Amino acid sequence: MFKEIARDGDARAGLITTRRGEIETPVFMPVGTAGTVKGIRFEALETELDARIILGNTYHLWLRPGIDVIKRCGGLHRFIGWPRPLLTDSGGFQVWSLGDLRKISEEGTEFRSHLDGSLQFLSPEVSMQVQAALGSDIVMAFDECAEGQASVETARPSMELTARWARRSRTEFDRMQNESADTGRTDGNEQLSGRQALFGIVQGASHVELRRESLQRTIEIGFDGYAIGGLSVGEDKSVMWKVVDAVAPQMPADKPRYLMGVGTPEDLLDAVSRGVDMFDCVLPTRNGRTGQAFTSQGKVNVKNAQWAVDTKPLDESCECSVCRRHSRAYLRHLYQSGEMLAGVLLTHHNLAFFLDTMRRVRQSIRSGEFPKFRQSFTEKLNEGEQQKALIIA
RNA sequence: UCCGCAGUAGCUCAAUGGCAGAGCAUUCGGCUGUUAACCGAAGGGUUGUAGGUUCGAGUCCUACCUGCGGAG
Length: 393
What we know:
Blueprint: E1 2-8, E2 11-18, E3 21-25, E4 27-30, H1 42-48, E5 54-57, H2 58-63, H3 67-72, H4 76-80, E6 86-89, H5 92-97, E7 102-104, E8 109-112, E9 119-122, H6 124-134, E10 138-140, H7 152-178, E11 197-202, H8 208-221, E12 225-228, H9 237-247, E13 257-259, H10 265-272, E14 278-281, H11 283-289, E15 292-295, E16 298-301, H12 321-325, H13 328-336, H14 340-366, H15 370-392
Parallel strand pairs: 4-14, 5-6, 6-10, 10-11, 11-12, 12-13, 13-14
Antiparallel strand pairs: 1-2, 2-3, 7-8, 8-9, 15-16
Helix pairs in contact: 6-7, 7-8, 8-9, 10-14, 11-14, 13-14, 14-15
The chain binds one RNA strand through helix 5, strand 14, helix 11 and helix 14.
């Protein structure tokens, strides 16, 4: 499943083999919650941006359109028109973000649908069944995500529940695989004859000893890859790195390591330097839709009046089709006018920047120049931010 | 020319004679396994003008100005 190709310090470049092709790591996975990476067409994702894997979401797709529709339409890949690998999140995080709408028990989670208020029940078994029906290539175990600031007293039972749910996820997943219930493999293509992969998730909030125990218990069950969950949910950044520093080196070296929900471009490089291989984050797409661009010179708030007649591209060192064709002035105009193209173009650029950054990260690890790359990348980001501060002052 | 109605933030409009507000627009900020093309904050006023009544006037009275409608 994972082969290390090069290593530079703790940073590693590798290859994840899924039944739908190989993925070079470190990799950023655009988030496509409801069967769409919001604001961008699959053609662009595949051809220009060359995204190798995107996310889908169990919770959202289960509620709408529902697994019957997706099964009858040949699984998630065929339904949405994406032939490359898909990773589906288990719904654990959604249940957490629903807040007061949920009720957690040993058996699973009872909650009200955010769509129509109907009572729903999600458990490790249901999550595995749904993900089998979706036919994604990487399935996530059903976990419970605790508050970032949760005390040991709260975080321990939550972590232990996640461990028990991980075992149930494993059992049900194996049963689905043995029964060939997984939609993705029913394609005639022999390349698709492989099983889905299943990743376990490490929890334990900000408590290092809980995190280590969680990792140990997850490894004992045995997964194709290991994820660190429950970070970037409001805790201090120093807490996040404390946890990653404690967990990442202990994660099996022959399996992919996935830091869920992270992060900013700087976060990605910081995590890669700690040995993380996979990332996903809504920032490039969400912030694109809400008027913020990520560039090699730091963040650009497209809404700002200072760009009103600026004929420069968002990022002069970006090769993406948006930067080659359009000015900041035009993008600001589109955003101010409420034109949908604003979000589309900004999303495109942001994803291009994230994916290109990861390409350069991989290259620098292979050539043994990752620390140098990281330093100059961060310096440029900071220079831009400092200039911005000067303009404001 | 006469009669009526209206004039309040950039725009559209609120406000028993008692602290002049909202929505939109503007400016700025936020967003980390998407309930999010979203959320939040700020700036912005000689209430058409000039008088009067009143403890107190956007509000009542008088004149004028501007706009709209009607009559002629």
